[in-house]
């Protein structure tokens, strides 16, 4: 590949960062409610993706308020089913206490979640979203490396 002005490229062009992540769903409305009622996301309705012929919404953009990260929730039942039990994103919190507070919040909202689990270097919490995909939090607070992290048949299988 060559550049129009400088000859052959010797390195790839720059990337500014992540524009947005995409998560498949079986139901846009159900997943949207989860992310905006349970997690700190705001629906950016002006970016709704609609089919030209029917006006049906097939994707929505949500914004993580604290970081401005954008996520697209995209209607794709086959891919959503394939990601059941998978944690595509792990959120970061500062301390184990923060995980305990997240667990309390999730339980109060009726969201199925793990106990706070011991990982190899810190602790984590796992919750299930409406499609059966996992949302995971890991804390920055750490302990000495431990090869005997918690194993849980549902939340942290080997």
UniProtKB/TrEMBL annotation:
Domain VOC residue range list: 17-140
Q: Which PROSITE patterns match?
A: VOC
Q: Which InterPro entries match?
A: Glyas_Bleomycin-R_OHBP_Dase (IPR029068), Glyas_Fos-R_dOase_dom (IPR004360), VOC_core (IPR037523)
Pfam families from the xrefs? Answer: Glyoxalase (PF00903)
Protein name stated in the entry: VOC domain-containing protein
Name the lineage: Eukaryota, Fungi, Dikarya, Basidiomycota, Agaricomycotina
């Amino acid at each position: 590949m060559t550049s129009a002005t400088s000859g052959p490229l010797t390195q790839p062009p720059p990337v500014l960062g992540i524009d947005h992540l995409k998560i498949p769903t079986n139901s846009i409305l159900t997943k949207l409610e989860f992310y905006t009622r349970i997690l700190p996301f705001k629906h950016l309705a002006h970016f709704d993706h609609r089919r030209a012929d029917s006006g049906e919404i097939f994707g929505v953009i949500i914004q993580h308020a604290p970081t401005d990260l954008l996520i697209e929730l995209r209607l794709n039942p086959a891919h959503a089913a394939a990601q059941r039990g998978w944690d595509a994103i792990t959120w970061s919190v500062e301390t184990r206490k923060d995980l305990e507070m997240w667990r309390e919040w999730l339980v109060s909202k009726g969201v199925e979640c793990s106990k706070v689990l011991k990982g190899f270097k810190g602790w984590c919490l796992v919750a299930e979203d409406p499609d059966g995909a996992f949302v995971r939090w890991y804390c920055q607070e750490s302990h000495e490396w431990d090869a005997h992290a918690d194993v849980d048949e549902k939340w942290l299988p080997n």
